[in-house]
Amino acid sequence: MLTELWNDAEGGFHPASAPDFLPATALKEVQLRRLRAVVARAYKNVALFRTRMEERRLTPDAIHSLADIQRLPFTVKTDLRDTYPFGLFASPMSDVVRLHASSGTTGKPIVVAYTREDIEVWAEVMARTFAACGLHRGDILQNAFGYGLFTGGLGAHYGGEALGATVIPISGGNTDRQIMLIRDFGVSALCCTPSYFTHMIERARELGVDLRDLPLRVGIFGAEPWTDGMRRHIETEAGIKAYDIYGLSEIIGPGVASECSAQEGLHLFEDHFYPEIIDPETGEALPDGQEGELVLTTLSKKAMPMIRYRTRDITSLITEPCTCGRTLRRMRRIGRRSDDMFIIRGVNVFPSQVEAALLAVEGTLPHYQIILTRDQGLDRMAVEVEVTPEVFSDRIGALENVRTRLAQAIEHILGIRVELRLVEPRSIARSEGKAKRVIDRRNEGG
Amino acid sequence: MKLQQLSLFLENRPGRLDAPLEAIAAEGINILTLSLADTAQFGILRLIVREWDKAKRVLEQAGWVVNLTEVVAVDVLDRPGGLATVLKILDGAGLNIEYMYAYSLRRGDKAILIFRFEDPDRAIQVLLDQGLHVVDGDELMSVAAA
Ligand SMILES: [Zn+2]
Fold first, then answer.
1. How far is the CA of A258 from the centre of ligand 1 (A)?
2. 3-state DSSP call for residue A142?
3. Euclidean distance between CA atoms B71 and A242, whole angstroms
4. Topology of domain B71-133, per CATH?
5. Which structural domains are found in chain A, ordered by start?
6. Is B60 an interface residue toward A (CB < 8 Å)?
7. B99–chain A Cβ distance below 8 A for any pair
8. For chain B, what are the domain ranges?
9. Does the beta-carbon distance from A394 to B11 stay under 8 Å?
10. How far off is chain B from A364, nearest CA to CA, in Å?
11. Is residue A300 a contact partner of residue A19, using CB atoms and an 8 Å limit?
């Protein structure tokens, strides 16, 4: 039966996608076997993990069923910093073929390692990601994720090649050239951060290039949370299907989960990454369907296994079968990343809440930036919003009205006062990677 | 008889006018008149130029958000009561004026005022019926050339 799926003419299914369709019982068997192996491996080779197991009087033999995973200790982001650079490696350097590092905004970066086998698994899950997004052999894939220490570029690159697509390793930046190649090479699929792609749309419009007239068919976007409104904007303005993918360097990079043609949640490649949802306050596991923090265990990573890694991403799991036929569980799109949250006057604020307000008023998402300042001990929040053709008017009154409506929509959601400033188009810095939405100047002198 | 007016958004900071005006000048496009309306935070630059479509393209390619509006130019006697007469006619006809400003050049004893009406077509009809002179694009260009 699977053979038939693989040969689907639309190319939605690729031999690499076979595990996406495993019956639930077979999937659980694979998960349990791999979980026992990875716990044993980490226990044997990673001192921090062994110490924590010993504190709980646990050995790898304690894993009899998948539910036993809840007895294991968590791993958190600071563990990676505390053991910088190589303290969590479970392989000798002679077996490590690649290192990546994340650009932490403060202090030391986070270092991650891969054996040759890990790189193969990574290529496999990224090939499955692209296949789930409807790509196949013959597609020309422009990879505008950044190449280098960041995992996005190389992760997508190997996955695209494994799928059999033609990969253009353009990396991020040089937007005019990106647009030239999309047009001249007949690019059919493109991957990058959603904020960078909205910048490409904007620039293409200025250059008089209508992306809707080009063969570009699919966009694969990840590395930062984005809203459904932004998706609608991208799909309409570029004439493509826009898919959300999910991953993080600590686990592998991109390739942890991907949307499918249904665009209703992201299938987790749970034969390699075992998901749990916990209450972020108590650490208790939550039942399927409930919203909480996503915790992931790498079931097959060799160089750097992560046991119950707390992602700080808030989501929930969907267990109902998907119309695409994949049996892998799905997670809802990440709207909130607890790392992006900031606290102002005791109120927890996520940029996505501000985005929702801007979207409700304008219909599409304008470029914006949140600026936090401190004035005589009092925190202030300003939101700068670029004027778009949709809201611009030749009448002062109409613009003042837009400004008031935007401010009120934000204040209504957050319950705190904001100063709303309309700013000139293109005045907020564009990013070629993850968009910087919040500028916190509260601790800068003064 | 309507004129095409370009508007663009500016932040209210010193020197903000320079960039758009230079962009237009660099293309050799003649600005017939400009007016700036502003609040404490932002401003709107309104322009009437010779080749509005070219100017719009140039500005948009440079990243500005440009709005195109139809306005009406009217001859008004440049003496006390001249403007009041016109306003009275418009008011009597129940026509809404969104805003107005003076054209930079005069013609003899007349000044030219630019009006932004809610309903420019009806406004032109009313003005013509009352014997006022509505200045069209070509005429405006010739004033500039004279
Ligand atoms: Zn699906």
1. 9
2. strand
3. 41
4. VC0802-like (3.30.2130)
5. 1-338 (3.40.50.12780), 341-440 (3.30.300.30)
6. yes
7. yes
8. 3-69, 71-133
9. no
10. 15
11. no
Parallel, antiparallel, or unpaired for β B66-77 and B134-135?
antiparallel
Residue B65 near chain A (CB below 8 Å): yes
Domains B3-69 and B71-133 share a fold: yes
Mean pLDDT of A357-361: 86
The sheet with strand A378-386 has its strands ordered as A419-423, A378-386, A368-375, A438-440
- Dihedrals φ, ψ of B100, to 5°? -150, 155
**ipTM of this predicted structure:** 0.85
Within 8 A of B67 by CB-CB distance, chain A residues are 389, 392-394
Nearest CA in chain B to A422: B42
Centroid of ligand 1 to alpha carbon of A11 (angstroms): 15
Per-residue model confidence as pLDDT tens digits over A235-292: 999 999 999 999 999 999 999 999 999 999 999 999 999 999 999 889 999 998 999 9
In degrees, rounded to 5, the angle at the alpha carbon of residue A153 between the alpha carbons of residues A339 and A143 is 120
CATH code, residues B3-69: 3.30.2130.10
Mutate one of B2, B5, B41 to test the A interface: name it (highest A CB count within 10 A).
B41
Cα torsion at A7, A10, A15, A16 (round to 10°)?
A: -170
The answer to whether B11 contacts chain A (CB < 8 Å) is yes
A392, A393, A426 member nearest B63 (Cβ): A426
